[in-house]
Amino acid sequence: MKYRNLMVVLALVIAFGLLGSLAGPRWTPQPMDEVIVTETSDVAIGSEATTDPVGTYEVAQEVVDLELDGAHVQATLTSPVGAAEGRPGMVFLHGAGTGSHTNFTERARALASAGVYVLVPAKRLDTYTTASRNYPAMAQDYLVSWRYLRDRPGVDPGRVGLYGESEGAWIAPIAAVIEPRVGFVVLVSAPVVPPRAQVAFAADQYLRNVGVPEALLRAIPRGVGAQPPGGGFEYADFDAEPWLRQLHQPVLMVYGTDDPSMPIVQGPLVVGDAIEAVGNDDLTVRYFAGANHGLRIEGELAEGFVDVLARWTAGLPATADAAPQVAGAQPEQQFRAAPVDHPRWYADGDMLVWSLFAALVLLAIGPVVWAFGLVSARVRRRSRRPLPPPLARYTAATGLGALAVLVVFCAYVAYVADLALNYRSADLVVNGGWVALHALGILAVAVGVRSVDAAVNAWRTLGGRRFAPGQVLIWWAAHLGAALLLLISAYWGVFPTVF
To answer: In this structure, how many other beta carbons lie within 10 angstroms of the beta carbon of residue 128?
Structure first.
């Protein structure tokens, strides 16, 4: 008997592992076989153009109101005091999340001290949500700020450009195509590839840095590639390349070499090929050693970053193609950011949520029916007929065991994510936790098999007539709910993979 149960457990574990391997898209990122070789480690911008260095001018700031189409936002204007007429201007476009007009203060003041007018508008939030973002519409909103700065006294209207950071780097090229009079485009920590591909790439890099088991990486396309419940998120597949292929303005791209979330080699290669298609070869790229996504090192802006911004901007058009065009620390990118496969229908969006909901409802039926039977028996003053021992405890253990597997998996993923986002590692917990999670999954299967075996023996011994309909309902609901939870767990890799 024990040998038979052991063989059934082994067969089910292999089956769950096989289903997990076959059920969804696999994760096989391709190596990044193209490289960028920096011409020099010195990030300084070349050319014979004469420009004012950072710190030349006093700086003044004021908050202005801007009227958009259907909304208004505040913006902070930072100006060089005493600078001659005809100075360049730069409008900042925010990254993901909320964006205040008080952001980028350090960069704005540094640029203004070098003679560049800077406008930082607040991000419009009434049309910006987690599920819905319209990048062309956002570009139109930012162009209101561009026109305001272009028309300011002291600003050269032909030398006003855009600074897009992170998510803003998807929007800046759109705005520059819509408004050809935009003078230049600065892309800082630019994703370039579609958002879904960038998120998958970032997740892969973060998880690899933590040292997670290879099998856990297959959760990336299953999570990132899925259509979120309730719909929306159409912007996840936004493609910037068609806009980049219409970009005629000079482009400056800046990355930190310690930014695992961005394709720091692939991005400039894509931009370079795209703008070259329209005869534009004015691309300058700078890499800062040890800088993160925000171009910071231990909380401080990377040394030389604001000098590069100021020199390149103030020196245009001479600095647009000045040597060296690619300079700084040597960047490395292990894998290519690429389109993400979508899960099959049964594991996509609403279906996955409904499956989880159905499993939890099934598990809840047992306690509800049990409580109803207990109250009913007391009201009628009759003895209650529980499941014959040991079926009651096996049934409860089966449901709780399957639920525990999914809860522990979610806790494990949350812990790993916290490690990854905070650039920490804990090899013993990460790898030991993964082994423990496999063990818990196998234990849950073993408990379920033992419960089914006990039910079969009880049915044979006592006969089917000895079981009340409520007892049968409790048993089936608990075991079907547990089986569904274990299938969901298998999909996310809880059981050892077969291949």
So the answer is: 18
